[in-house]
Design goal:
Blueprint (H helix, E strand, L loop, with lengths): L1 H41 L3 E5 L2 H8 L5 E3 L5 H7 L6 E4 L3 H12 L3 E4 L6 H13 L4 E3 L14 H9 L3 E8 L2 E3 L7 E3 L4 E6 L11 H22 L6
Parallel strand pairs: 1-9, 2-5, 2-6, 3-4, 3-5
Antiparallel strand pairs: 6-9, 7-8
Amino acid sequence: MKNAKYLHSNYKKFISHFRIYKDRILLSFVSGIGWLIVYGLCSTILIKVKGEEVLENYYKKGKRVIFTFWHDSQLFFVYYYRNRNINVLVSESKDGEYITRTIEKLGFRSLRGSSSRGGLKGLLKMINALKEGYDAGITPDGPRGPRHVLKEGVLLLSQRTGCPIIPISFSSRKGKYFKSWDKFFMPFPFSRGMLIYGNPIEIPQNCSTEELKKYQIMVEKELNRIWEECRGGYYP
C-alpha cells in the first residue's frame, strides 16, 4: 500500500515537471520559428520608405514617439524597428507569451496588457516607459478588433506623456491576407514593399472628452489614408 502511494506521488511530480519543461521547450521552439520567419522573410524585401524625416525631426528634439499602426501591418514593423528597445504592448493571454518571446529576440521590450485584459496596467507601463526615454509601439485596433477601428488607449498615452503619435503603414506588391479578424498581411519573399509615415498627431494634455473624440477620428483617418496609399487604394 505504501509503495503504491509512493509511486502515485512520484508519478504526479513527474507529470507536473514534464508539463513545465514541455511548455518551456514549446515556447523556445515557437519563438525561434517566429524569429526565423520575421527575419528570414522580411530581410528579402526591397523596401521604399516615405516620410521618415518626420521621425528624425522628433529625435533631433530629444523626444520619444508612439509608433501607431493597424494590427494587420505588424509583421514588418517587428522587423524594421528591431533592436531599438521599443516598448510593445502584448496581450496577457497564453498566445501573448509566444509573441513576447519572439519580439524580445528581435530587440523589443514587451509590456503585458491590452485593451481587453490588463488594459489600465498596460497603459501605465507604457506611460512610464515613454517617460524613461523609450519609444512605444501600439496596434490601436488590437488585440481582437474591430478591424481598423481606433481605440482611445493611444490617445490617452499621447495626452499623458506629451509624446507624438506617429502613424505608419506597410505593404508589399505581393503578399497574402489571412482569414483572421484583422486580415493579417504577410509579404512574399523578394517582393517590393513600401513603408509610409503619416502626419504626426499630438494630443494636448488639457484635451476635453469631446475634443478627444475628434482626435480619435483624426488619427483613425490618417492611419487609413496611409494604409490605402501603401496599397494603391486596394482593399483586401
